[in-house]
Specification:
Blueprint (H helix, E strand, L loop, with lengths): L3 E5 L5 H4 L6 E5 L8 H7 L5 E4 L7 H7 L5 E4 L9 H6 L4 E2 L6 H16 L2 H9 L20 E5 L3 H10 L5 E5 L5 H4 L4 E3 L2 H7 L2 E4 L13 H6 L5 E4 L8 H9 L5 E4 L19 E3 L8 H20 L15
Parallel strand pairs: 1-2, 1-3, 3-4, 4-5, 6-7, 6-9, 7-8, 9-10, 10-11, 11-12
Helix pairs in contact: 2-3, 5-7
The structure holds glyoxylic acid.
């Protein structure tokens, strides 16, 4: 039998790639930066399996370029808004992702970003490096208390839930909103289901953990921001396009809200000259919420296992379109 051909669009943990046996021919994109569209379309020609990242656009054109041999798409991420899943399903191609293993790490990072924004950690740390720490001053670098405040979570999925769990340690009131109410666990997590307006109005911290879709694109726009408290802090560790960045810039600049912490931006990377980068009250990190050694190793392992299963025609460990197995 011919060897299965696989394109891997970026380096992942080598230990995971070593799981592939000699029956698989790996074409690994070694550059740090993603392949250009043209190169990607060329490199996928005739492949049986694809390992991709959220920075790769996986659409009908790419699946056409790969051709009918393509039988598994395995993404190293939990989110998959870069993939046209409907198109993959139409072609009977299972799409794998890496849920669960990154939940705790991403929830930890959300808290790191929230606290950094609340207590002006980045801004004050930069000031120290710049030689601007002249004295202890009663009025310098005043932030917002986390302890005892109200946390509003948009999107009560796996990550939202773990963010909520951590809030108990800060004795916070937790509000949440989602399309589905999680009444079964509200008591355990001491959280209250509210509508979006109430969440925006009552929360001291608003943290976004929903998927990016047509209905969540720019969900946090000028109007939503205007409903938040002046003292409130917005945290986004989901997808950049859920927030209208122009509206966020205006809100941060004019004091409509107090600060923001972003793990994700629109676009990514955020251009070096983006006005948001001029604001002291906006903490931005480069989409690193799942970036711990252990979690990225696990994500690599699951990604490769999904690929192996797909190549063998077996069910993926985590599949976003299980309906491909229906008939
Ligand atoms: C990262 O953003 C992911 O979706 O895993």
């Amino acid at each position: 039998m011919d060897r299965a051909r696989v394109f891997v669009s970026r380096r992942i943990f080598q230990k995971a790639l070593n799981m592939l046996d000699t029956g698989v021919e790996v074409d690994l994109w070694e550059d740090e930066l993603p392949p250009s569209r043209d190169v990607l379309l060329k490199r996928v020609e005739g492949i049986d399996g694809l390992i991709c990242l959220l920075t790769d656009k996986i659409d009908a054109e790419l699946m056409d370029a790969a051709g009918p041999s393509l039988r598994v798409i395995s993404q190293i991420a939990v989110g998959f808004d870069n993939i046209d899943v409907m198109e993959a399903t139409k072609r009977g191609i299972p799409v794998g992702n890496t849920p669960d293993v990154l939940t705790q790490t991403t929830a930890d990072a959300t808290w790191a970003i929230l606290m950094a924004a609340a207590r002006r950690i980045v801004e004050s740390s930069i000031a120290v490096r710049d030689g601007k720490w002249k004295t202890w001053h009663p009025l310098h670098y005043l932030g917002r208390d986390v302890y005892g405040s109200t946390l509003g979570i948009i999107g009560m999925g796996r990550i939202g839930l773990e963010v909520a769990r951590r809030a108990a340690g800060f004795d916070m009131d937790v509000l949440y909103t989602d399309v589905v109410r999680r009444q079964d666990i509200e008591q355990e997590y001491k959280m209250r289901y509210v509508d979006m307006d109430t969440l925006l109005k009552e929360s001291d911290f608003v943290s976004i953990h929903t998927v990016l879709s047509k209905s969540t694109h720019h969900l946090i726009d000028k109007e939503a921001l205007s409903k938040m408290k002046k003292s409130a802090i917005l945290v986004n560790a989901a997808r950049g396009a859920i927030v209208d960045h122009q509206a966020l810039y205006d809100a941060l600049k004019t004091g409509v809200i107090s600060a923001a912490g972003l793990d994700v931006t629109e676009p990514e990377p955020i251009p070096y000259n983006d006005p948001l980068l001029t604001l002291d009250n906006c903490v931005i990190v480069p989409h690193i919420a799942s970036a711990s050694v252990k979690t990225r190793a696990e994500m690599s392992r699951i990604t490769v296992q999904n690929l192996i299963n797909g190549l063998k025609g077996e069910k993926l460990l985590a599949c976003v379109n299980p309906e491909v197995y229906d008939e």
